[in-house]
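Predict structure. Chain length: 153.
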Amino acid sequence: MADTMGDIGSMGGPQSCDSERTEGVMVKPKILLVDDDAALTRVLRAGIEQTGRFEVCIENNPLKAVTTAMTFRPDLVVLDVIMPGLDGGDVASLFRAFPALRGLPVIFLTAVVSKERVADPHGTFIGGVRYVAKPIDTKDLNEFIDPELPPAA
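Prediction complete.
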């Protein structure tokens, strides 16, 4: 992990995840999707943005998730659990290491637990964090985003 600290701590980020918020303009809550499955993140982003209520940024490289979060300044992160390089738990721990990201709410997506094993169809909580089973459709994802957003978002 030591050789990845340049990616983790640097302040650069993807150009598609602009962090500017215009004062006095109605601001949509920002959601960061972190999953190594690019096809899944594209589908989820389209479904979330289709509501017209959220601005969505995708990061498919978990080693760049902190950098992207520092640049994009999301109100919520939807984070895959199993990814190459860093798993979702490691990424969430790194978020807590940075004061600007410390209180960032996270929803974990996982293929490890099936929907049938999760008692609540909208996920389960482990250690105060919502876990949702994959595959997930955007309707289900949209239903539990609101409760996880901070009140000011």
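Summary: The chain has one domain: 28-148.
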